[in-house]
Structures
1.
Amino acid sequence: MHGTMANLVRTPVLEYYKGMLSTIKENIHLFRYEKNHDDLFEGCWPINRGVSINSYFVKGSSKKVLIDYVEAGASFDDDLSQLGSRLEDIDILVLNHMEPDHTGALSTLFARNPQIQVYATRLGATETETLYGYKNVHVITNGEELDIGGMTLVFYATPNIHWPDTMMTFLKEEGILFSCDAFGAFGAYQSVYDDELTESEWALLKTETERYYANIVASFSSFVLRGINALASLPVKTICPSHGLVWRKDPGYVVSWYARMAGYAAGEREKEITILVSSMYGNTLSYISALERMAKDAGIVTHTVRIPDINASYAIEKVWRSKAFIVAAPTYEKEMFPPMAHCLDWLVRKDVKGRISMHFGSSLWSGGASAEYKAYAEKMQLDVVDTFDFRGKGTAEDRERIMNAFRTVIEKVRED
Ligand code: FEO
């Protein structure tokens, strides 16, 4: 029987876990939707440990405001009705950026509430019309204030964190920063606030924040640092991002964490080595455990990521933080093993630059992986210690060459 097109196309999963409503302060509420774990974020990143889409409802005495919305297929009707409100009652919708995980359901909202006034940047206004045909958009100016009755919203343009239209919204009286995607994380947490996290949730947060940053934000790291500096003088008591946790106990922690991850782009990185390995029949793979041992003996942490068994999302996360990464990949039809080439292509696209690196891999006839690695290394401006294709299982001399090169990588990683 022949397969049909429908069998070949991944159908997005639009079923949601129940929305979770939390009250952050009187008249300030969080609506939190957890995407289905089988879905792919942005159509490419695994979220098998979940991700929440956060929206905020701020009820001033004169205006009701939603800050960010939700993707197509979800709604906040239940959450709003618990608070005695309806979509039709909302006066203002602040769109901190227009990515459809936060705006996909706007057609429904605009149909039910055609008078609602959107607040966005100039680019956000254009996108609102392009994507949803909606024109009632107030274009914010940087630092503009809006009195909603007993509370004041202040808007700050923070372009390219990570979309060009991005802005953040500050609730002056409470010191709450609605930070859009900045300071967000993958992962689903029972806890709403940083001070509620269990030990296992902290462990999840550690990797899922770094994976989120490396996958979604890393390419815009210079803008992240610029944004953090620009907002440094704000008296922020609580950070409310559009994914992940609300930071009320120690918002400075996540700001410092983001600054550190942004710093990995061009500055100091962790003295760790990520080992990316692909293997067809075990020849290339056979060298990895010796490398891991050598690093361990030297007190250096390694992260081994097997490609394509592990999604490139995780490789990007580990490479982003590491001072060095190793590419162990064989030749396939005169070129690099394609899943590894795909992974290296992702690293180039995510603006990975300047790491210490080396490559080796098995080949039987022509070789070819090394030549392709050199091209990627040039694009990433890597400090290449060695690269070569060996025959079959490799000789004792090949093994010696790999071990010597890796020893040099370790020495370079240890240097300040
Ligand atoms: Fe969570 Fe850039 O959207």
2.
Amino acid sequence: MAIVIVGGGHAGGQAAASLRQEGYEGSVTIVTEENYIPYQRPPLSKQYLSGEFDVNKVYLRPEKFYETKGIEIRTGLTVNEINRKEHELICNDKTVIRYEKLLLATGARARTLDIAGSELSGIHSLRTIKDVDAIRVDMAKANSVTIIGGGYIGLEVAAVAIEAGKQVTVLEMEDRILKRVATPEMSQFYYELHRSKGVNILTNCTANSFQGNGGEVSSVHCSNGLEIASDLVIVGVGIVPNVEIAENAGIKTSNGILVNEYCLTSDPHIFAAGDCTNHPNPLLERRLRLESVPNAMEQARVASANMLISIEKPNAPELLKAYASIPWFWSDQYNLKFQMVGFPTDSDEVVTRGNVESEHFANFYFMDDAVIAADAINSPREFMLAKQLIGKTVDKSALADPNVDLKTLTTT
Ligand code: FAD
């Protein structure tokens, strides 16, 4: 029996490890178009960009792990086509790989900007090790760095660049940074933080074109007429899920590869996990496409368990594991650890615990008097307990009082 995993990101790497942890002894192959063994992306905009981590610290597990566990990794190989009838993958070098069960962990790619001057050198996306290696070369010689997009990745890059002594500008087309994911208060918190460090943040500002000099970017022209001198530009305007090989094979997709609660696609032998999926969340009662490590890891675990069940006990669908997690996420900027669970933007009331000025606090978000989300700055204990409060009705004044141990509220 052969299980093949397409994609060597967090989901692909975790799925292979989980298959062995669950005792699967058949063949496991990871096919990944990148030239690296499975790696984690979060350090790419943080410690790997700053030079604090070398590439070995970015890998999910050392190469030896896969050798010991008998997991084959085929790097630098792209799956071009899935032949579902024959259970075969056709790769870019014409290699054909057979599968009994297939996991699509194809992730996503950076969205690019289609504006004049995009072909100039010095303009980068940030999704892969290769991207960051190129950014680091350009960053070393750059004076002025412009970041297009005020999301978490853009702001993490801004933090690294300003600490490296660059002149940094962030362009955000919305009226506030982090608008898609954070409340106005958290947007304001991060706005003030970055401003205090010297980052220039321009909101309601869209990049219209790039100007160059000798083939290299020299400035960004904005919708409001501003021209921003830039010798390095990082484009952080979101991602596009990699669904094409699934779609071309007739697997159902819609803003991601459609899976059910068991991480199963519309083909009974093909599962999917991670950023590429559009999946149901029974706790939130809606479908989601997420871009986060905890989701990629959990879906990979669920998909692996279910691939094994479908091999070993194909007639026992009642044994399948269902995915049901409240989404959570983190971001590191300067010396601040931000953690978030649930969707704060859905709330109708917020209770803050701790002190915003001292950069040590947690916000608890309510809807109809139940906690639906929380975010925390430099407060990992509060965050851990906040996760246990989701869905509960708690005494708001006790929640706001740092003298009341949060643990006592989790048991009510
Ligand atoms: P990916 O990591 O995208 O991996 C998919 C892999 O599949 C890629 O290597 C791709 O090349 C390969 N592939 C695709 N198609 C094919 C094919 N046809 N053939 C062969 N190979 C293929 N999340 C957090 O929770 N916290 C953070 O702080 C955080 N920071 C981030 C910082 C950066 C810079 C980035 C880019 C992301 C960050 N994320 C963070 C998001 C997180 O990294 C992703 O959610 C996670 O990587 C998703 O893992 P994945 O395995 O689903 O997909």
